[in-house]
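Sequence, structure tokens quoted for completeness.
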Amino acid sequence: MLTAAGFHVLLALASGPGHGYAVMRFVEEVSQGAVKLGPGTLYRTISRLVADGLVEESDEGDPAAPHDARRRYYRLTPEGERAARDEAALLARLVAAAGEAGLIG
């Protein structure tokens, strides 16, 4: 099972490679501001996901973005995609159970 921050990062990268700031923006946007990953949490989480083989650095970037040699891009590995799918399926089951329990409409 992933940490919440780990799942957020995998979810942000599920549609393609991204850099840390884009991941932070995605998480804040998709959670409507309820979740904010600070730089420390974000980069510790990315380091852990890299060590676990779920994320890797990517040479791909956004050709339209201004070049910044310090900006690192990350992408899911096949194992990372599998982990994100498994976690999403678990969360879907939990949401269904919460609905059946009358916790959500």
Remarks:
- The radius of gyration is 15 Å.
- The chain has a mean pLDDT of 92.
- Strands lie at 18-19, 55-58, 73-76.
